[in-house]
Design goal:
Methylamine Dehydrogenase, Chain H; 2 domains; four-stranded antiparallel sheet; mainly beta
């Protein structure tokens, strides 16, 4: 065999591949080998798609409806009756959707709202008006009912970064780029009180369920609380590593949930005793959206990698994570019956999820089923998913607050 190969002559290359012609006396054997480019094409386009595992879970829930805006969503609001949605984005005016059926939503643009003008939006508790906080420092309260009128509140500042209605709808709180927090009396149309805030820009505002307290989270990582019947001086009840982008008040009062961008956990605070009441492990990513279900039994949290997680706050603390968006989950809002969760991301998508399909809730909660402060104490603060303060581990990576906020 060696003697036979020694007498062989190897011939030419061709464009289609490498052709070896082996000649020995009376025999001629031609072998055609594909080119490296052809082999690469075969591996990438044919072999890998057949062997690569399918990451999509066929059992994963699908949104019951999907709405879109032309760019990333800045803020999202849902009316109490669940029949209206509003969203602000960078590239178009505020979009208002009206529900025509379970999955059909009709969009319209709010008259008088300029492109990129509104940063934050909120429905009044009665659903008769929609407040839009604008980049020029004004708040436009748009009438959604025939008997309402258009109102413009001018703070004289550069930008409205956060706003919230009080539960009775008579008061509106706004946070502006001068770090000021103003309490507006909507019946008189003027500023009732200016709260002192030394924590820099405010990213989130929320009233207590009884309307007597206001909580803010901001750029310095602080969580501050004001008693509106008292002094304008606020109290710092807690602090996070990184920027606070999300705050949620428990529907029965007494407890506040907040999240910082560098921790990957949700901290729980008392609005009376102060101090950290516990830590609910979140994810390994920054958390930028929080929402309690109306009965307080579920907490939804959204992160920077497009996932939102639904956590049960009673029983064994079960949770479910859903791959929902590309990029940040900017907003999470529950419907008033607790049966639907609405998520929005900087991919421009707004998705409505039926929680019965997620698996932690078989049906919308009964309106008369109480989950009060006692239920919180039994379910949350003694849940096996809670970590004591000393066992919390910081996230491995950190980011500059200005680079990851929902600008």
């Amino acid at each position: 065999m060696v003697w036979w190969l020694a007498r062989a002559r190897i011939a030419r290359k061709s464009a289609a591949g490498l052709e070896c012609r082996i000649v020995h006396s009376r025999r001629c054997l031609a072998v055609r080998v594909p080119s490296p480019l052809g082999i690469s094409f075969l591996l990438i386009c044919v072999v890998l798609p057949l062997c690569w595992p399918d990451d999509e879970d066929p059992q994963a829930p699908r949104p019951q409806a999907e709405l879109r805006v032309s760019s990333d969503v800045k803020c999202l609001a849902i009316s109490r009756d669940g029949r209206s949605l509003a969203a602000s984005s960078w590239a178009q005016p505020v979009v208002l959707w009206r529900r025509q059926g379970w999955s059909e939503w009709r969009p319209s643009l709010l008259f008088g709202q300029e492109t990129s003008g509104a940063r934050v939006v909120a429905f009044a508790p009665d659903g008769r008006s929609l407040a839009c906080g604008n980049l020029d420092g004004t708040v436009v309260v748009h009438p959604l009912a025939a008997e309402e009128r258009l109102r413009i509140l001018d703070s004289g500042s550069l930008e409205v970064r956060a706003l919230a209605f009080s539960p009775d709808g008579r008061t509106l709180a706004t946070a502006t780029s001068d770090s000021g927090i103003r309490i507006w009396n909507l019946e008189r149309g003027g500023v009732e009180k200016v709260l002192r805030n030394d924590g820099g820009f405010v990213n989130a505002l929320v009233f207590s369920p009884d309307g007597g307290k206001l909580v803010a989270g901001g750029e310095d990582g602080g969580v501050r609380l004001w008693t509106l019947s008292g002094s304008c001086e606020g109290e710092t009840i807690g602090r996070h590593e990184g920027v606070v982008l999300a705050i949620a008040y428990h529907p029965r009062g007494g407890r506040i949930a907040s999240a910082g961008t560098r921790e990957g956990v949700v901290r729980l605070w008392s609005d009376t005793a102060g101090g950290n009441q516990g830590i609910l492990p979140g994810t390994s990513e920054a958390i930028c959206a929080l929402a309690f279900a109306p009965d307080g039994a579920l907490l939804a949290l959204g992160g920077e990698h497009g996932r939102w997680t639904l956590c049960s706050l009673v029983g064994d603390g079960a949770r479910r994570t859903i791959e929902a968006h590309q990029g940040w989950v900017k907003c999470l809002v529950f419907s008033s019956d607790g049966g639907t969760l609405v998520s929005a991301g900087n991919d421009g998508c707004i998705k409505l999820w039926r929680l019965a399909e997620v698996g932690l809730r078989d049906e919308p909660p009964a309106a008369d089923r109480p989950v009060g402060a006692a239920g919180w104490e039994r379910g949350i603060l003694t849940s096996p998913t809670l970590l004591p303060e000393r066992s919390r581990r910081p996230m491995a990576s950190s980011r500059e607050p200005s680079s990851i906020g929902p600008s």
